[in-house]
Amino acid sequence: MPPLPHDNDHKPRVVLYHQTHYKPNGEYVSLLPLLTEATELVGVTHIIVAAIHLNASPGDTTLNDDPPSHPKNDPLREDLAVLQSIGIRVLGMLGGAAKGTFARLDYDGGDDEERFESYYIPLRDMINSYKFDGLDLDVEEDMSLKGIIRLIDRLKLDFGDAFFITLAPVARAMHGGEHLSGFDYEALEVLRGSSVEWYNVQFYNGWGSVGDGSYDGIVGRGWKQEKIVAGVLTHPENGHGWVMWEEVRRAVMRLREVYPRFGGVMGWEYFNAVADGEEGNPWEWGEGMMKVLEAV
Fold it and tell me: What is the percent of the chain where pLDDT is above 90?
């Protein structure tokens, strides 16, 4: 397919997940080098802070292993405020590989509103406390379509239309293949597509690759290209299916050339991101991706 003319009003996203907030030696991983070390371009449009868990007891909500109010999260909250002050949007990530969160929010087929509220209200309060601009729903366990719709509708009711809701499906989920979430993403897009800002699609861990035509297959199935953000691993230790920097760069450049409203790139995750084999400078990954997107 030959390249199409670019939509000059459309800017692809560079999304970075941020789950590892402290290195094994206890050193805090600051996000501010994304700003202070940038040589040409700020290398991120959106940060997604992971991972929020709703544990077995209602009200036992944690950010990774600690309560959101724990003092160890104070430096993170300060960094997020700085990023937001210059226009970078910050979302929280709910769920992930640790199962249970979405089962507790799911619709159980009966009169379960009291149970739903007991888990949802603490989540709502955390979103308010952290001043998140949105929430990424990383559903890696079975959940019903009715359950995910109820959660999306409630978030929009409480936080308004400007609040971003994203999801993080594996690539196969976008064309009807086997996946992790239980519900049908194509049905969700039909029923609540207007409430979902974009999808952080995982092209790794055996579910697809950014350079193997999976993205083309998804768009060819009818998905809006601006809603499909191509997710890749930023370091070989972050999962299976890591693709070397130069190969990712070429693949992203091709997608940007072919799709005038290309949704952008997502990286899992920030703390050890590596570009051109350079360890220890994670901000360079985002800036490098931004340069690729801006160059085409």
Answer: 86
195/197 Cα distance (integer angstroms):
6
Spatial contact of 199 and 168, defined as CB atoms under 8 Å apart: yes
Task: Summarize pLDDT for 179-225 with one digit per residue, the tens.
Answer: 889 999 999 999 999 999 999 999 999 898 998 899 999 999 999 99
Contact between 253 and 288 under an 8 Å Cβ cutoff? The reply is no
Separation between Cα atoms, residue 249 and residue 255, nearest integer Å: 10
Query: Are 173 and 180 in contact, with CB atoms under 8 Å apart?
Result: yes
Token couple for 191: 């029923």
pLDDT band at 20 (very low <50, low <70, confident <90, very high): very high
User: Helices 145-159 and 185-192: crossing angle, nearest 10°?
Assistant: 40
Helices in the chain by DSSP H: which ranges?
A: 33-36, 74-85, 101-105, 113-130, 145-159, 185-192, 214-220, 245-258, 283-295
User: Which residues make Cβ contacts (< 8 Å) with residue 273, sequence separation at least 6?
Assistant: 16, 234, 235, 267, 282, 283, 284, 285, 286
CB atoms within 10 A of CB 190: 9
pLDDT in the model for residue 7 = 56
The conformational region for residue 176 under phi > 0 = left, psi -120 to 50 = alpha, else beta, is: left
Residue pair 92/52 in contact (Cβ under 8 Å)? The answer is yes
The pLDDT confidence band at residue 227, using thresholds 50, 70 and 90, is: very high
Compute the distance between CA of residue 230 and CA of residue 262 in angstroms, rounded to an integer: 9
Q: Give residue-wise pLDDT tens across range 67-81.
A: 999 999 999 999 999
